[in-house]
Structure formats: structure tokens, C-alpha cells
């Protein structure tokens, strides 16, 4: 009886973790529209730096109010600050490359190329000794095909921006792997806070070195900036860290790849862009890939 109850509890935790990752993908999908809109007013590093620091400021009091009430998981400072710094470096590289690419790369190709982290995560998993089942590999193929169709299915003639997106996808895969390594050794909110502090500080330093940040531009971009900082940053990345506690990295990457589907849907609603038949098929394939991993 105890074994059966424990099994149910374990399954419930897995479903809740999957739900966290699903919700994170939904928020990131909507945030893709906000990030593109913000580029009309501010430069990439200015956007990322401000967003990262706002996210860190939002997360710190949230941890003070809620994190301490949670049962202690025995986190250590080395895992928190060392792991947070490593995750922050990966996040900084990934978000910087993505934001730079959004300046001159179409949203369709951006969505497809960013979704390549679905391929990089299982490949990186092989080098760290993780076994990837054939079911997950099949789901990866389905999800990549779905993302490709969702983004128009056109030929990929790689420009500088698109090469940046491939690099961004690889860095996002590294961030997913690093979160998987440190997530059980520290508090989720604090880990997220440290990674955004590192990413925000690095982006801000580069912004003041190579860009021309202005208060006027930030005020014009305040709505998409706050959405990206609070919801896409503080909320979604905390959901990612919590969700990865009971989800293998390869499966987590597939769940989070749904952001491409939600980006297309939010674009249709907010920007009045209509989904074509090919894009609808792509959405169905991506959902099928995620369902396959959960069977």
C-alpha cells in the first residue's frame, strides 16, 4: 500500500513539474512578441541588462516572503553562487545572441532556430552520461519538424543573425543542463535570482560600453520590458527551475519548446497574424511530440 501511495505521489510530482514547464513555455511564447516590440525603442544589451536587473530585484523579496516558508532542502552556498553564476553566464550568452538576432532576422526563422536547443540538450546529455531513449529521440524529430513547419518551412540561408540564433540555442541547451545539475542542491528562487543578476550585470556593462542607453527609450519600452522582466524572467524561469526538479533535461527541453507554438498563437492574437495550414500542422506535430514524452 505504501509503495502504491509513493508511486502516485511521485507521478503527481512529475505532472506538476511538467505543468510548470508548460506554463513557462506559454509565458515565453507571449514574451517573444514583447521582446520584438521592445527592439523598436532600445538596443539589445540595454534591454537584456535592464530586464535582468529588474527580474533579480523582483525575485529577492519574493524569496524572503515565500522561499523561507518552504521546507529546507539543505542548499549550500557554493552550489547557489557557483551554480547561479554558471547558469547566469549561459543565460547571458543565450539571451544576448537571441536579442541581437531579433534586430534583423524574421520571427519565423528565429523561432525555428531557437528551438534547436531540443537537439542540443539530448546531444549534450550523451557526453554527461545520460541515456536518451528512442521515444525521446522520436519526439525530438517530431518537435523539430513541427517547429520548422510552424515557422513557414522555408529554406534556411544562414545570415549573421541566424548564426547567432544557432549559438543562442546551444547556450540555452547549456543553461538547461546546468539548471538540471544544480536544481536539487539549492533554493529555486535564489538560483534564479543569482543567474539573472549575473546576466543583467554583464549585459548592462556591455550596454554602457557599446550602446547608447537612454531613459527616454526605456520609458517607451516600459510595458514589454516589465512583461519580459516580471513574467518571462521572474515567473517563467522560476517555473523552469522548479519544473526541472522532476523532469529529465531532454523531456524538459521538449516541453519548453512549446513556446514556439504559443509565440505563433500570441502573434496571431496580438499582432493580427493568421496561422496558415502548414503552421497549424506544425503546431499539431509539436504538441504530439510533447504528448509522446509524457505517455
Provide the descriptors you would attach to this structure in a database record.
mainly alpha; 295 residues; 79% helix
How would the blueprint of this fold be written?
Elements: H1 2-38, H2 44-66, H3 77-101, H4 107-114, H5 117-127, H6 134-150, H7 160-182, H8 188-210, H9 215-220, H10 222-243, H11 249-256, H12 259-270, H13 277-294
Helix pairs in contact: 1-10, 1-12, 2-3, 2-8, 2-10, 3-7, 3-8, 4-6, 4-7, 5-7, 5-11, 6-13, 8-10
How would you summarize what this structure contains?
The chain has 295 residues and is mostly helical. The chain has helices spanning 2-38, 44-66, 77-101, 107-114, 117-127, 134-150, 160-182, 188-210, 215-220, 222-243, 249-256, 259-270, 277-294. It is built from 13 helices and no strands.
What does this structure look like?
- This protein is mainly α.
- It has one domain (35-68, 75-294).
- Helix content is 79%, strand content 0%.
- It has helices at 2-38, 44-66, 77-101, 107-114, 117-127, 134-150, 160-182, 188-210, 215-220, 222-243, 249-256, 259-270, 277-294.
- It is globular and about 50 Å long.
Helix content class: over 70%
Radius of gyration based on Cα positions: 19 Å
Poorly predicted residue ranges: none
User: Could you give a short account of the major beta sheet?
Assistant: none
Mean pLDDT equals 81
Q: What fraction of the residues are assigned to beta strands by DSSP?
A: under 5%
Per DSSP E runs of 2 or more residues, the count of β-strands stands at: 0
If helices are DSSP runs of H or I spanning 4 or more residues, what is the number of helices? 13
Structural class: mainly alpha
- Shape verdict: globular
